[in-house]
Protein backbone atom coordinates (compact mmCIF):
# COMPACT_ATOMS: atom_id res chain seq x y z
CA UNK A 1 0.00 0.00 0.00
CA UNK A 2 1.44 3.37 -1.00
CA UNK A 3 1.03 6.81 0.58
CA UNK A 4 -2.50 7.99 1.35
CA UNK A 5 -3.85 4.49 0.79
CA UNK A 6 -2.85 4.35 -2.87
CA UNK A 7 -2.15 0.82 -4.08
CA UNK A 8 1.32 0.58 -5.58
CA UNK A 9 0.48 -2.18 -8.08
CA UNK A 10 -2.09 -1.92 -10.86
CA UNK A 11 -5.49 -2.17 -9.19
CA UNK A 12 -7.90 -1.19 -11.97
CA UNK A 13 -7.83 -2.18 -15.64
CA UNK A 14 -10.22 -0.29 -17.94
CA UNK A 15 -10.94 -1.54 -21.45
CA UNK A 16 -11.97 0.68 -24.36
CA UNK A 17 -13.34 -1.29 -27.32
CA UNK A 18 -12.51 0.66 -30.47
CA UNK A 19 -13.43 0.08 -34.09
CA UNK A 20 -12.56 2.97 -36.41
CA UNK A 21 -12.53 5.43 -33.50
CA UNK A 22 -9.72 7.67 -34.76
CA UNK A 23 -11.96 10.76 -34.64
CA UNK A 24 -12.95 10.24 -30.98
CA UNK A 25 -10.25 8.17 -29.32
CA UNK A 26 -7.80 10.95 -28.38
CA UNK A 27 -10.52 12.86 -26.54
CA UNK A 28 -11.72 9.66 -24.90
CA UNK A 29 -8.25 8.73 -23.70
CA UNK A 30 -7.62 12.22 -22.36
CA UNK A 31 -10.93 12.18 -20.48
CA UNK A 32 -10.56 8.68 -19.07
CA UNK A 33 -6.90 8.97 -18.10
CA UNK A 34 -7.64 12.26 -16.37
CA UNK A 35 -10.45 10.69 -14.35
CA UNK A 36 -8.44 7.58 -13.48
CA UNK A 37 -5.43 9.61 -12.38
CA UNK A 38 -7.55 11.19 -9.64
CA UNK A 39 -8.40 7.84 -8.05
CA UNK A 40 -6.49 6.54 -5.00
CA UNK A 41 -5.35 3.46 -6.94
CA UNK A 42 -3.13 2.93 -9.94
CA UNK A 43 -4.88 2.15 -13.21
CA UNK A 44 -4.21 0.97 -16.74
CA UNK A 45 -6.20 1.55 -19.94
CA UNK A 46 -6.36 -1.11 -22.64
CA UNK A 47 -7.54 -0.01 -26.09
CA UNK A 48 -8.79 -3.01 -28.03
CA UNK A 49 -8.52 -2.29 -31.75
CA UNK A 50 -11.38 -4.27 -33.27
CA UNK A 51 -10.26 -4.72 -36.89
CA UNK A 52 -10.10 -0.96 -37.52
CA UNK A 53 -9.21 0.39 -40.94
CA UNK A 54 -8.31 3.91 -39.76
CA UNK A 55 -5.67 5.33 -37.39
CA UNK A 56 -7.23 3.96 -34.20
CA UNK A 57 -4.30 1.66 -33.40
CA UNK A 58 -1.70 4.35 -34.12
CA UNK A 59 -3.40 6.83 -31.78
CA UNK A 60 -3.45 4.29 -28.97
CA UNK A 61 0.14 3.19 -29.61
CA UNK A 62 1.50 6.74 -29.47
CA UNK A 63 -0.62 7.96 -26.57
CA UNK A 64 1.17 9.48 -23.61
CA UNK A 65 -0.63 10.62 -20.48
CA UNK A 66 -0.98 10.24 -16.71
CA UNK A 67 -2.26 6.65 -17.01
CA UNK A 68 -0.51 3.89 -18.98
CA UNK A 69 -2.28 2.92 -22.21
CA UNK A 70 -1.66 -0.36 -23.98
CA UNK A 71 -2.91 -1.53 -27.37
CA UNK A 72 -4.47 -4.93 -27.93
CA UNK A 73 -5.40 -6.19 -31.38
CA UNK A 74 -8.66 -8.08 -31.88
CA UNK A 75 -8.91 -9.39 -35.45
CA UNK A 76 -12.55 -10.34 -35.00
CA UNK A 77 -14.92 -7.38 -35.55
CA UNK A 78 -17.69 -6.70 -33.07
CA UNK A 79 -17.91 -4.79 -29.81
CA UNK A 80 -18.57 -7.95 -27.83
CA UNK A 81 -15.49 -9.62 -29.27
CA UNK A 82 -13.38 -6.58 -28.40
CA UNK A 83 -14.66 -6.35 -24.81
CA UNK A 84 -14.13 -10.09 -24.34
CA UNK A 85 -10.53 -9.87 -25.53
CA UNK A 86 -9.89 -6.82 -23.36
CA UNK A 87 -11.36 -8.27 -20.16
CA UNK A 88 -9.49 -11.53 -20.63
CA UNK A 89 -6.25 -9.56 -20.90
CA UNK A 90 -6.80 -7.79 -17.57
CA UNK A 91 -4.89 -8.84 -14.45
CA UNK A 92 -5.97 -6.29 -11.84
CA UNK A 93 -8.27 -6.89 -8.86
CA UNK A 94 -10.88 -4.66 -10.54
CA UNK A 95 -11.76 -4.34 -14.22
CA UNK A 96 -14.26 -2.56 -16.38
CA UNK A 97 -14.97 -1.04 -19.76
CA UNK A 98 -16.05 2.33 -21.15
CA UNK A 99 -17.04 3.48 -24.61
CA UNK A 100 -14.51 5.50 -26.58
CA UNK A 101 -16.86 8.47 -26.87
CA UNK A 102 -17.02 8.88 -23.06
CA UNK A 103 -20.75 9.54 -23.28
CA UNK A 104 -20.98 8.51 -19.63
CA UNK A 105 -19.53 11.06 -17.23
CA UNK A 106 -16.75 9.90 -14.92
CA UNK A 107 -17.87 11.78 -11.82
CA UNK A 108 -19.27 8.50 -10.44
CA UNK A 109 -15.91 6.70 -10.72
CA UNK A 110 -14.76 7.33 -7.10
CA UNK A 111 -18.03 5.89 -5.82
CA UNK A 112 -17.72 2.89 -8.12
CA UNK A 113 -14.19 2.21 -6.90
CA UNK A 114 -15.26 2.52 -3.27
CA UNK A 115 -18.05 0.00 -3.85
CA UNK A 116 -15.67 -2.45 -5.54
CA UNK A 117 -13.17 -2.14 -2.71
CA UNK A 118 -15.89 -2.97 -0.19
CA UNK A 119 -17.00 -6.12 -2.00
CA UNK A 120 -19.38 -5.17 -4.82
CA UNK A 121 -19.09 -7.59 -7.73
CA UNK A 122 -20.80 -5.85 -10.66
CA UNK A 123 -21.54 -2.13 -10.96
CA UNK A 124 -23.15 -0.75 -14.10
CA UNK A 125 -24.19 2.72 -15.16
CA UNK A 126 -27.92 3.06 -15.65
CA UNK A 127 -29.49 5.84 -17.66
CA UNK A 128 -32.83 4.72 -16.20
CA UNK A 129 -31.80 5.26 -12.61
CA UNK A 130 -34.05 7.98 -11.11
CA UNK A 131 -31.01 10.09 -10.23
CA UNK A 132 -29.35 9.89 -13.65
CA UNK A 133 -28.91 13.02 -15.76
CA UNK A 134 -29.54 11.98 -19.36
CA UNK A 135 -29.52 14.25 -22.37
CA UNK A 136 -30.56 12.49 -25.57
CA UNK A 137 -30.00 13.82 -29.06
CA UNK A 138 -30.66 10.56 -30.91
CA UNK A 139 -33.31 10.22 -33.56
CA UNK A 140 -36.80 9.21 -32.32
CA UNK A 141 -36.73 6.00 -34.34
CA UNK A 142 -33.56 4.91 -32.57
CA UNK A 143 -35.02 5.76 -29.15
CA UNK A 144 -38.15 3.70 -29.85
CA UNK A 145 -35.97 0.79 -30.93
CA UNK A 146 -33.95 1.09 -27.72
CA UNK A 147 -37.11 0.89 -25.62
CA UNK A 148 -38.22 -2.29 -27.34
CA UNK A 149 -34.74 -3.79 -26.99
CA UNK A 150 -34.70 -2.87 -23.31
CA UNK A 151 -37.92 -4.78 -22.63
CA UNK A 152 -36.36 -7.96 -23.98
CA UNK A 153 -33.18 -7.42 -21.97
CA UNK A 154 -34.98 -6.98 -18.65
CA UNK A 155 -36.58 -10.40 -18.88
CA UNK A 156 -33.27 -12.10 -19.63
CA UNK A 157 -31.21 -10.35 -16.95
CA UNK A 158 -33.70 -10.48 -14.11
CA UNK A 159 -34.80 -6.87 -14.25
CA UNK A 160 -31.66 -4.86 -15.04
CA UNK A 161 -33.08 -1.55 -16.28
CA UNK A 162 -30.22 -0.53 -18.57
CA UNK A 163 -28.00 -3.26 -19.96
CA UNK A 164 -26.49 -1.17 -22.75
CA UNK A 165 -24.83 1.77 -21.01
CA UNK A 166 -21.13 1.60 -21.90
CA UNK A 167 -19.93 1.92 -18.31
CA UNK A 168 -19.49 -1.36 -16.44
CA UNK A 169 -17.09 -2.39 -13.68
CA UNK A 170 -16.44 -5.73 -12.02
CA UNK A 171 -14.39 -7.62 -9.52
CA UNK A 172 -11.49 -8.68 -11.75
CA UNK A 173 -11.73 -12.48 -11.34
CA UNK A 174 -15.47 -12.36 -12.05
CA UNK A 175 -14.97 -10.22 -15.15
CA UNK A 176 -12.44 -12.64 -16.57
CA UNK A 177 -14.53 -15.72 -15.79
CA UNK A 178 -17.69 -14.21 -17.30
CA UNK A 179 -15.80 -12.97 -20.37
CA UNK A 180 -14.35 -16.43 -20.97
CA UNK A 181 -17.91 -17.74 -21.45
CA UNK A 182 -18.99 -14.85 -23.68
CA UNK A 183 -20.05 -15.92 -27.17
CA UNK A 184 -21.88 -12.82 -28.44
CA UNK A 185 -19.62 -10.72 -30.65
CA UNK A 186 -22.13 -7.99 -31.46
CA UNK A 187 -23.95 -5.24 -29.57
CA UNK A 188 -26.07 -7.60 -27.42
CA UNK A 189 -22.97 -8.90 -25.66
CA UNK A 190 -23.68 -6.86 -22.50
CA UNK A 191 -26.77 -8.96 -21.83
CA UNK A 192 -24.90 -12.24 -22.06
CA UNK A 193 -22.03 -10.90 -19.95
CA UNK A 194 -24.43 -9.91 -17.16
CA UNK A 195 -26.16 -13.29 -17.36
CA UNK A 196 -22.82 -15.03 -16.85
CA UNK A 197 -22.14 -12.82 -13.83
CA UNK A 198 -25.55 -13.70 -12.41
CA UNK A 199 -24.93 -17.41 -12.83
CA UNK A 200 -21.87 -17.04 -10.67
CA UNK A 201 -23.97 -15.58 -7.87
CA UNK A 202 -22.97 -11.94 -8.38
CA UNK A 203 -25.36 -9.13 -7.52
CA UNK A 204 -25.64 -6.39 -10.14
CA UNK A 205 -25.81 -2.84 -8.81
CA UNK A 206 -27.07 -0.06 -11.06
CA UNK A 207 -25.73 3.42 -10.32
CA UNK A 208 -26.87 6.84 -11.58
CA UNK A 209 -24.81 8.46 -14.33
CA UNK A 210 -24.52 11.63 -16.31
CA UNK A 211 -24.93 10.67 -19.95
CA UNK A 212 -24.84 12.59 -23.23
CA UNK A 213 -25.74 11.13 -26.61
CA UNK A 214 -22.55 11.61 -28.63
CA UNK A 215 -22.38 11.86 -32.43
CA UNK A 216 -20.60 9.14 -34.33
CA UNK A 217 -22.19 6.01 -32.87
CA UNK A 218 -21.44 2.87 -34.88
CA UNK A 219 -24.78 1.28 -33.95
CA UNK A 220 -27.42 1.38 -36.67
CA UNK A 221 -31.03 0.25 -36.21
CA UNK A 222 -31.30 -0.82 -39.84
CA UNK A 223 -27.99 -2.70 -39.93
CA UNK A 224 -27.79 -4.21 -36.43
CA UNK A 225 -31.29 -4.55 -34.94
CA UNK A 226 -32.13 -7.93 -36.48
CA UNK A 227 -28.84 -9.48 -35.36
CA UNK A 228 -29.29 -8.07 -31.84
CA UNK A 229 -32.76 -9.57 -31.53
CA UNK A 230 -31.50 -12.95 -32.76
CA UNK A 231 -28.68 -12.80 -30.22
CA UNK A 232 -31.11 -11.95 -27.41
CA UNK A 233 -33.32 -14.94 -28.15
CA UNK A 234 -30.27 -17.19 -28.30
CA UNK A 235 -29.02 -15.81 -24.96
CA UNK A 236 -32.44 -16.28 -23.39
CA UNK A 237 -32.66 -19.86 -24.65
CA UNK A 238 -29.27 -20.59 -23.10
CA UNK A 239 -30.16 -18.94 -19.79
CA UNK A 240 -32.08 -21.87 -18.32
CA UNK A 241 -31.52 -20.97 -14.70
CA UNK A 242 -33.57 -18.11 -13.20
CA UNK A 243 -31.77 -15.00 -12.04
CA UNK A 244 -32.48 -12.72 -9.09
CA UNK A 245 -33.51 -9.05 -9.42
CA UNK A 246 -30.62 -6.54 -9.49
CA UNK A 247 -29.55 -4.48 -6.51
CA UNK A 248 -30.05 -0.74 -6.89
CA UNK A 249 -27.69 1.83 -5.51
CA UNK A 250 -29.33 3.88 -2.71
CA UNK A 251 -30.58 7.32 -3.56
CA UNK A 252 -28.69 10.29 -2.18
CA UNK A 253 -31.08 10.75 0.75
CA UNK A 254 -31.27 7.06 1.60
CA UNK A 255 -28.86 5.28 3.97
CA UNK A 256 -26.78 2.54 2.46
CA UNK A 257 -27.86 -0.95 3.50
UniProtKB/TrEMBL annotation:
Outline the extent of the Glycosyltransferase 2-like domain: 14-168
List the InterPro entries hit by this protein, alphabetically. Glyco_trans_2-like, Nucleotide-diphossugar_trans
Top-rank taxon, per record: Bacteria
Q: What is this protein called?
A: Glycosyltransferase family 2 protein
